[in-house]
Structures are given as structure tokens and as C-alpha cells.
């Protein structure tokens, strides 16, 4: 299925396309912090599962490649995956931005240092690309509804930003390089609308994980 050709050849008011047969799957690296809580990590895991299953994307997630991470180390693994990936999505949160940093907890200290190093590395990549007037579309940031825009590290401000799950269609558009609207037509993507994603088992699991994390992190 060539999404670009099928979309731009149509001039109907609403054009609905399936993505299950998409052959050119972009490679997406998801970066996140485990310093918030296990509920936040579960949200990231459920997002990765949904994107891989229903957004025709090959997802790289450290939780799915534990052996290589152990062999290469966190930074080594992320360095390699940043180079191999078509896109990099940084899930921003308080933990990632070091607002929950606790120096008395050695385990959290190590996680925080790793997250900072990874974000600094991505920030340098963005700055380098910007200085050479290169395309910055490889890099994206996202927050879930229980996080704030202020949780996005300043060094990542030049990256495209999304709020999930409501911006799932925009994320799909970014990953596959298709416009959601044009004169006389509106692109509807199978199972990825703001309300439609939760009708799938993977989408329902993502929604439940977000609700659990929101209650735990915000208290409501």
C-alpha cells in the first residue's frame, strides 16, 4: 500500500485508509526516563506496542532488547539505535527533566545520569543538524496527558512536539510523511483517530496505562 499515492489520488471529503499492509515501515527509537515510576514505564511500553502493531512502524525500545543493552551498555545501545533509526521520539516527563531527582537514592541517581546523557546526546544531534541547515524531522518529543510542556528539556525545543494519545494521527503523519488534510479531502487513518484507537486491544491497554499513571502521578 502506497499511502501517498492512494491519498493524493482521492478527492473525497473523507478518505479512510488501512495501514496493515504498509510495506515501508519507518524505524522509530523511543527514549524515555524510568525515574518517574513503573506506571509511566508501562505507558511507554504500551505506546510502543500500539505504534508497532497499528501504525506500520518498526519500534526500537530498550525493554525489548535487554540482552543487547546489557552487552553494549545503555549509552552504547542508544548511540547505535539513534544512527539506525529514521526517527527518534523522546517521551518527556518530570523524571526525564530531573524534577524528581533524588540524590540519596543511588539507583535513581544512575538512571537520572543515564537519561541526562542520552538527552544531551540527542540535543547535540539536533543542534548539529540545525547548524548545517539540515532537516530536523528525525527528532520528536511527546508528553502524555499527565505531563506538562515544561517537562520538555530546553535543548529539545527545536524538535516537533506531540501530546499523546490525542496526537496519534499527527504522529502517524510525521512518521509516514503524509498530510492529514488538503483542499477537498481529509485523511482518516484506520484505528488511529483520537477516539478510535481505544477500540483495539492494544489501544485499550494504552488508555488504561495512561489512566493508571495519571492517578498515581497527579493524584486524580
From TrEMBL:
Membrane topology per record: Single-pass type I membrane protein
Annotated compartments: Membrane
UniProt main location, coarse: membrane
Listed GO MF terms: interleukin-17 receptor activity
Keywords from the UniProt entry: Glycoprotein, Membrane, Receptor, Signal, Transmembrane, Transmembrane helix
Protein name: Interleukin-17 receptor D isoform X2
GO cellular component term, pick one: membrane
Gene3D superfamilies (UniProt xref): 3.40.50.11530
PANTHER family assigned: INTERLEUKIN-17 RECEPTOR, INTERLEUKIN-17 RECEPTOR D ISOFORM X1
PROSITE patterns referenced in this protein's UniProt entry, alphabetically: SEFIR
InterPro entries: IL-17_rcpt-like (IPR039465), SEFIR_dom (IPR013568)
Ranges of residues in domain SEFIR: 25-173
